[in-house]
Amino acid sequence: MRHDNRLIVDSADYSRLQLTQESVTVDILDTFLWILPILLLPEPHSPCLRIVTISSHYPSLDFVSQSTSVLGGVYGIVDCDTIHDQLALYKSLINHHLKYFRPVEKPQEFQYMKWVQYHLKYIDGWPKMDMNKKNVSKIRFHKRHLLVVEQTITFLSQMFYIVKNYGKLSFFEIGHSYITALMTIVIFSRSVVTALGRYRKIARYFVSSLHLYHYKDISEYALQTHLLVHRLSHYYTVYLISLVVTGMLLFNITPLYNNISSGVFNSPRPENMTFQHAVYLGLPFDYTTDIKGYFVVCILNWHLSHIAASYFCTFDLFLSLLILHLWGHLRIILNNLKTFPKPYTNNSMYTEEENQVVLLKLQECIRYHNFIISFTVMMSNVYDVVIIVYYLFHQVTGCLLLLQCSTLEWESLSRYGPLTLIIFQQLIQVSMIFEILGFLSDKLPNAVYSIPWEAMNVTNRKLVQVLLQKSQKPIQFKAMNMMSVGVQTMASIIKTSISYFIMLRTIARD
C-alpha cells in the first residue's frame, strides 16, 4: 500500500465511488443537490464530496480509515496503486466539472477565507498580500480613504437632520435617527482603522504566519487543532455573512413594505402620508414626499446599509478569526507542555543527552509563547480604540433599541427587532470569543509548573523559571490598557442598558 497515492473520500460518497485500473466512475447526483453543500460546508472535512491527496495536503493523516471519525466527519480511503489510478480519478472529477478538489496550498484558498476576502474587499479591508509587486491598485488605495470621507459626510448629514427636526418629531420617531447616527460613528472608527497601515500589516501577518494551516504538520495534535479551528471558522463565517445579508435586507425592505402598505405609491396619494426610509439624511431636496427624491435616497440607503453591515459583521468576523487562531495556538502550546518528555533512563534526573533535548524543547516553548504574546500586543494596538467605541455604542444603543421595541407594534418590531437581536448577539459573541482566550491562558502557569523541572539541570531550570514568569501574565485583551474585554464587561453593559431603557421609557411616557 503506497501512502503517497492514497486519496481521502468522504464516507457519504465512498459507496458511490468505484475505482478500477482503467477508469473511475463517480455517481453524481443532480447539480443542485451537491453544489449547495460544497459551498456551505468546510473543505475538506465536510460530508460533501471532497477528495484530496494525503501527501499534498495533510501528510499526517496516514492513520485515517473508513471507520475513523475526524471532528464529526467520517472518511474512507481509496487506494491508488499506480499514478494512473490517481490521474484517472482526477480526470473523472474534472469531466464532471468539479473544480473543488484541488489541494489547498495556502490559507487564502479555504472557502471561508475567500468569503472573508470578498466582503472585506468591498470596504477595502483586505490588504494586498504580495508586497513585492509595485503595481498596487491606486483605486483601492483611494477607496478606503473615500469611505472615511463618505462616513464623515453621512454623519454630518444625519446630525443636520436631527437638529432640523428636533422638537417636530416624537421621541420614537427621532430615536431612529439617533440609532443610525451612533452606528455611523462605529462605522467611521472602523473605516479609519482599515485605512491604517498597522491594520493591513496585522492582516498580512495573520495569513502568512498566524493561520494554523502553517502549523498543521508540527504534530498530530496540531493537525487536529487546525481541523477544529478550520471547522469553527467556516461555520462562524457562514453565520456572520448571513447576518450581513439579513440585516441589510430587513433594514431596507421593512420601510419599503410599510410604504407599499400605507399606499404612498398610489395615485392620488393619501393626505399627510410621507415616504419611510432606512436612513434619514439632511439633504437639499425633498425625499419624503417627492417620488424622484425618494428613489435617489432609497438607492443611497441600500449602499449605506451594505457598508454598515460589512463594517459591523465582516469586521467583527475578521477579528473573531484572529482570536480563534490564537486560541488554537494556545491549545497547541498547552499540549506541548502536558506531553513534555520525562526522564527515560533515570527516574529522578535527566541525562546529559536528555537535557540537551529538554533545552531545545524549552526554547521552542518560549519562542512559541513569545509569538503568541507579540501578536496579542500587535492586535491590541490596532483594535483598542475600536473596541472602546464599540462598547460605548452598545451602552447607548442597547437602551434605545429596547425603547423602540417597547411599543410592541408590528412596525417597530419588524424594523427594530432583528436589528436589536443582531446588535446584542454581536456584543455577546465578540465578548465570549475574547473570554475563551483568557480562560485558556489561565491554564498556562499550571501547565508550565507541571513539567518535570526538578529532574533538569540548572540551565534548564532557569529557562523553566523564565517561562513560568512569562506565563503568569494572562493573555487578556485590554482596550487602551484600561478596559478588559470579556464576559464581565458584556454583562455590565447589558445590565446598564436595561436600566437606562427603563428610565427612558418612563420619561417617554410622561
Q: What is this entry, summarized?
A:
By secondary structure, the protein is mainly alpha-helical. It is built from 14 helices and eight strands. It holds the Pfam family 7tm_6.
Task: Explain what this protein looks like in three dimensions.
- The protein is mainly α and 510 residues long.
- The protein has 14 helices and eight strands.
- It has helices spanning 11-14, 31-40, 83-95, 111-122, 138-165, 171-194, 197-210, 220-262, 291-338, 352-405, 410-441, 444-449, 458-471, 487-509, and strands spanning 7-10, 17-19, 24-26, 51-53, 69-70, 73-78, 478-479, 483-484.
- A four-stranded antiparallel sheet has the order 4-1-6-5. A two-stranded antiparallel sheet has the order 2-3.
- It is elongated and about 95 Å long.
- The model is unreliable at 1-39, 44-83, 93-101 and 131-140 (pLDDT under 50).
For the biggest sheet, the summary is: 4 strands, antiparallel
Radius of gyration: 28 Å
Strand order of the largest sheet: 4-1-6-5
- SS field, number of helical segments: 14
Distance between the termini: 82 Å
Number of strands: 8
Q: Helicity, in percent?
A: 55-70%
Q: What is the 3D shape?
A: elongated
| Global mean pLDDT | 75
Uncertain spans: 1-39, 44-83, 93-101, 131-140
Pfam families: 7tm_6 (PF02949)
Transmembrane segments: 146-163, 175-196, 236-257, 309-328, 371-393
Protein name: Odorant receptor
GO molecular function: odorant binding; olfactory receptor activity
